[in-house]
Amino acid sequence: MMVHGDLIDDVQALSLSEPEYLLFNPIGDKAGLRAKLDDVPRYLFRISTPKSDGTTDKFWVKSKDARHGRMNSREDVLELDDNQQVAGMLNRHLRWCGETNDPDNFVSWTSSLLFALQYVFYRHTHRKDRSSLASIYLYIIDTAGFRKGTFVRDMDLIRAYRSFDKGLQDLEILRTTKHRDFAGSFYFGEYLSQGALKIEGKCQFVSAQAIIDQGLFYLQPEFSKSIVTKEPSWSNEVIRLREAFSRKAAELQPITDDELEVAINIVYRFDPGWRLPIAANLIALLPRQSEDGAILPAFTASPFTGLAALFLLVLNELMDKAEERQNCSPSSTKILAYATLPEVQQFDTIMRSVHKYTSLAKMKS
C-alpha cells in the first residue's frame, strides 16, 4: 500500500515540534557522572531491524518508550526520583530482556564495528527476529555533531546505579570478567542515548545486504558462518573472533590487495568525509601487522578516485581533502581504545598511522 505524499509531509511536519535530543544531566548524587560525559568516541554504530523495540531511520532514533509516545520518554533518567526503577530499566536494556510493556527509554550504540556487525547476523538468524539482510541497517553517527550529554558510556551508568539493582552489580562484574574459554571479556564499547534523537545530517547508513554484496565476508570470513548457523550467538561469538588479536605480531598476516579493494568498494557507499574512518574500521575487523606497508598506501592513494593501480599509487584524492585529513587527526577524532576492545585499538592504530603519514607528507610538500 502506498502512503500518500501529503501524509508523509504531515508526519514530518509533526516531527519538527519534537525536541531534537534528551540530554543526560547529572545532578545531586549523580553529579559525578558529569566528568564522564566527555568520554565519548567520535564515531558510534547502531543496528536496526524492523523488529527492533525502538525505531531508527535517517531522521530520528527513538527508544521503545519514545516510539510509543510514553510520557517518560521526554524525562532524563538522571532526574527521576526512583533510582530502583531506573536501575531495573537499565539492567533489562543492557541484558536485552524484559516484557513488551516494560519501560525502556534507552538507545544502544557501540564503538565496535565488529560487535555491531555480529549483531546483524544474530538478529537475522534468531527466531525472535529473522529479518532479511536487506531490511537490517547499519547506522554510523558522528558524535561531534551532538551536544555534550547526548551519550554516556554503559559502564558509567552501571556504576551510578549498581547499588540499586543486584542485576547491575552482576553485570558490572561480567563486563570485566575474562571469558571462560577465550582471552577476551564481555565488554563491547556500548554507549547510550535516551528518548528521541534527531540524527538527520549527522549519520550514514547502509543495509547489511549491500555491504555483504560488496564483499564483507572477504574482510571477515567468519561472518559467513554466522549467517547460516542454527545456534545464533552474539557476545560469545565476538569474544571468539577477538581471539585472533591475541596472536603474536609475527603470526599476523599482512593485508592483501583484494581485502583493501573490498574495503574501498564498501566505503564508496558513504559520503566523502566518512570514508576514511569507515574504511579503517573495516580493515580493523581482523588483526593486522602494525604499520602494515600495504595499509597506508591504501588510505592515501588512488583507490578513492578509481580502481586503476589500486594499491600502488600514493597521495591522490583522499588525503588531498582537508576534511579527510582532519578526520584522521587524534585531536578531532576521539577514539577510546580500551584494552578490552582490540578491534577498536586496531582502528586507533590505523588512524594514527594515516595521520602520521599525512603530517609528514604535508611537511615535505
Continuous helix count: 16
Residue stretches low in confidence (pLDDT < 50, at least 5 long) are: 1-15, 302-320
- Give the topology string: H per helix, E per strand: HEEEHHEHEEHHEEEHHHHHHHHHH
Give the domain tally. 2
How far apart the termini lie comes to 59 Å
In terms of DSSP E residues, the strand content is 5-15%
Written account of the structure:
It is a single chain. The chain has helices spanning 5-15, 64-67, 83-94, 113-125, 154-161, 166-175, 208-213, 216-219, 223-226, 235-242, 257-267, 275-283, 295-300, 317-320, 322-327, 342-364, and strands spanning 43-48, 55-56, 60-62, 106-110, 137-142, 152-153, 190-194, 196-198, 203-207. It is of the alpha+beta class and 365 residues long. The protein folds into 2 domains: 19-205, no CATH class; 247-364, no CATH class. The strands form 3 sheets. It has a 3-stranded antiparallel sheet.
Concise synopsis of the structure shown:
The chain is of the alpha+beta class and 365 residues long.
Identify the notable features of this structure and list them briefly.
365 residues; alpha+beta; 2 domains; 3-stranded antiparallel sheet; 16 helices; 9 strands; globular; disordered N terminus
Describe the secondary-structure layout.
Layout: H1 5-15, E1 43-48, E2 55-56, E3 60-62, H2 64-67, H3 83-94, E4 106-110, H4 113-125, E5 137-142, E6 152-153, H5 154-161, H6 166-175, E7 190-194, E8 196-198, E9 203-207, H7 208-213, H8 216-219, H9 223-226, H10 235-242, H11 257-267, H12 275-283, H13 295-300, H14 317-320, H15 322-327, H16 342-364
Antiparallel strand pairs: 1-5, 2-3, 3-8, 4-7, 5-9, 6-7
Helix pairs in contact: 3-5, 5-6, 11-12, 12-16
